[in-house]
Amino acid sequence: MSTILTILVALVVMGGIAWVLRFAGQQVTNGAPFFRDMSFGVSFGYVLGVVVLAWLAWGFMQSRSSDPAIANKFFFLGVAIKGFVIFSIAAWLFRLLGRTVGTDWTRKMFRQMPLTASFGILAIIVYAIFAIFAGAIAPYGQDEIIQGVAANIIPGGDPAMGGDPAFPLGTDQIGRDILSRLIYGAQNTVGIAFITTMLAFFLGGSLGFLAAVVGGWTDQILSRGVDVLMAIPSLIFALLLMTIASVWSSRLGIPLTVFMVLIIALIDSTRVFRLARAVGQNIVVMDYIEAAKLRGEGMGYLVFKEILPNATAPLLAEFGLRFCFVFLTIASLSFLGVGIQPPLADWGTMVRDLAAFINFAQFAPLAATAPLLAASAIALLTVAVNFVVDWMLHKTSGLKE
Amino acid sequence: MGNVLSIVFQRLALGLLTLLVVSIVIFVAVNMLPGDFAELILGQGATPESVAKIRTDLGLDQSLVSRYFGWLGGMLTGDLGTSFAQLNFQTNLGGGGGVTVGEQIAPRFANTMFLASVTAMIAVPIAVTLGILAALYRNTVFDRAANILTLSSISSPEFFMAYVLILFLAVLNPILPSLSNIYEGMDFSDRLQKTLLPALTLTLVVTAHMMRMTRAAIINLLASPYIEMARLKGMSPMRVIVKHALPNALAPIINVIALNLAYLVTGVVVVEVVFVYPGIGQLFVDSVKIRDIPVVQACCLIFAAAYILLNLTADILSILSNPRLRHPK
To answer: Are residue A217 and residue A329 in the same domain, yes or no?
Structure first.
């Protein structure tokens, strides 16, 4: 209760300061347009911004305090600020690089790019490298239980805290190297999400275009079927089907992960179907399709040579978004314990297994890094993809507002 | 007015039909299990006699169609069947009966509804206010910061948000409890305090969505001639938005709110597991893990029904608030 009261009082005080600031500005500058036309909201915004920045700076200084109790409390704020600054600088440098190196076309693209989008592209490239070369980068195997090493979750490899410099992020409860598992997690989680999204696009896209071209009863049946499947919330439906799949997989000896890919691809293909059908229907009425039909072209030619090239832009943006949804669904399923199965390393499972260490953060903040690292690995990738998609949509829609 | 009623009834009928078809889909999906329930319940200790006994007990010897209608009839009259886990437990103890799925679900359903309504209570006013502010101060630093923050919170998984909130609000600054052990007979303020952290997590996710859509709905309208007119009259930007843009943007905003409440239904599952909140989502995940089919089936149908109902509400409200849809040509 006292927290809410403090916040309310602070807001009222800031409102007062904002009013005084605007009034003083008007008096001092003799009613310059900048202050004369300033609304109360804008001046409040300036004050709020300054207060937030000052608080962040204060918190950052606190995180470097020599008193461990205070430093521990602000440790994560310090890390977050440092991370934000480092990521911003990296994105800025990457954009600078893109503006000077490359063909005319890419240089032009990077010139118009906001910082968020260049951060997104950089992050996606880094993730792709880790995912493809995980086997070469990771120092240990993903299910390799290292004998003779005490399990130690504290990163840094500081021998004074029982660590081993050979394991920079420590080892988990049963003695597997956390760094290697994080790197392999990129391969497993991202790779499986990518395959699932491709499958969903192949299924949903081809059926959607088919419905658009053929129309009539085929369209009706497919659309109503998709309507019904979309009426069930996707995570709930996925969980229901995973229950059934888990029985089948133990019966048939096929890994559960295969079933998971198929189930999520099926559920997500309904969303792709909707979009592909809507885009396809807009294209089918064009004159060049009429001409192709009159030439006597077959269905395959119509879909792949005439419709697909004209539907690339919206489908590409949808691919990014869909990938995010699939990736989050898989991570959530793994987190709930029914997704990617051990011994495969996976970020969702890692978060679940290591989550209990967050409770020690007050005394040893480093103990909480392992679960948070896995969780932020998931968040960072989806944020990056969303930033890029946001920019692409903004660019193609020509929205300038 | 009769026209509106007939449209609303049409939508309601369509919603009921969807629910019926969804129940068929769920039933068929569950019946795709290999073997049958009887073997699944008994597991290792299955003898032909006991399998046959359970088959007749559960009515598995009847045809698929009659079983479906039996299940559906039970659902409608509130008899959701008996949970496998409970059945097993009771058989081992030698007693009869057991806790029915309905008795298991009812209190948890109430808990989940409580969580969802607390979330909605916090999220809706904040989201609409922030959306209006973002539309008012569009293309400023505030708008861009809000854009980046909301995009990040939409794209982060719920459990990431949950653990970050636990870290800052429960572990580093012990303001709120990180475990929501709710029990019956708790007093309201205690219960609210224990629900607050999961509710805040859900709020973060849902608010971002609602705020972005509110902003988009208002900005869409700002190009209209009557807004131009109001601006030329010399009205302040805030009054232009609140008096002229907002009433016309109400339909899409109401729609957005209902859709996001529908989204809450799914989001609740992960959050309940993180905070060990005794709601229906946690029961669902637990039952999925131990393959307790009757509970899974019933939970799935309840989630789907809530989802369809909220989407239906969004549909009907947007018809009612839009004169052009109210009087179709």
So the answer is: yes
